[in-house]
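Lab notebook, bench 4. We co-purified these components, and the gel suggests they stay together. Before we commit to crystallization screens, I want a quick structural picture of the whole thing.
Request: model the full complex, all chains together.
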Amino acid sequence: MHYTLCDFILDVFQNGVEAGGTELAVAIREEDSEVAVMVTDNGPGMDEREKQRAIDPFYTAGGKHPERRVGLGLPFLAACAEHVGGSLNIDTAPGIGTTVQFSLPTACVDTPPLGDMAGTIRVMMCYDRRYEVTVERSRAGRGYVVRRTDLAEALGELESAGSQTLLRDYLEQNERELHRTED
Amino acid sequence: MGKMTLEDLKKLREEKRRDLQMRDTENKNIQIIVGMGTSGIAAGAKQTLDAFLDELSDQNLTNVAVKQTGSLGLDHAEPTVEVIMPDMPRVIYGRVDAEVARKIVRKHIIGKALLNGHIFDRPAADIVQGKSGKTEA
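Here is the predicted assembly.
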């Protein structure tokens, strides 16, 4: 299995969307020594028992697939954070929502590669549900912010292949700008 | 080219829309739904999604809706994709890598023929025989 950091981020984000979150925020900060991520949603949240079970691979809330007995997204992330000397914190309360924060050291050889950031942010914007999400992306002092409503307004809609191709170009250009070296 | 703004994006959209509106008015009822659950992502569903966007763009099918959902329930066959379009049965394809995604656009959406080797759930054999007209391996 070749998971990237972007896959972890997308998995945590998707948990928030599928749990019924309608307001989500994602912050992805890439520095020399670490990658730090925070994903917040206003979904149903979890009590202490559910929170402990959320990182158990042999547990799932079962809402999507009642017959299923495993849920692997957060357990993979927890195992990775522990293995590479990073951190994972889940702050949640019933009726309030959930914030998942994690950071992974870039120096550890076992820290997964970052992956396709532009593609990941595009996917976050295009789930077939009603929700708002703001993504704050920064790298070494530079950054950009994208909001789903703004993108939908600029493109007219986010559903067609044409809009998503333009959105991909837009995000890839802004990612290239983050990685541009000063002349 | 520096950082793109939302205004730049709006301008780009207007330019593209002018280019394409004469060519692509018939595909608004076609939906491609890509399963993007944990197992889908691990199996490469993002690359599959990208391949659909590239092929649809190459074929000037920019009005086709490309949607994302969680797992479609066929984790052993990820990446999985559901295709819905008029005059064709509703089909779930499995093991859809980038190359298969391009084939789905060319054969299923343009050619209106099924890719039998990748059909995992629907349609049942009798529906395929009875309604779609032709099948293709």
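Strands of chain B lie at 31-35, 65-69, 81-84, 91-93, 114-115, 135-136. Worth comparing against the SEC data before the next meeting. The first strand of chain B starts at residue 31 and ends at 35.
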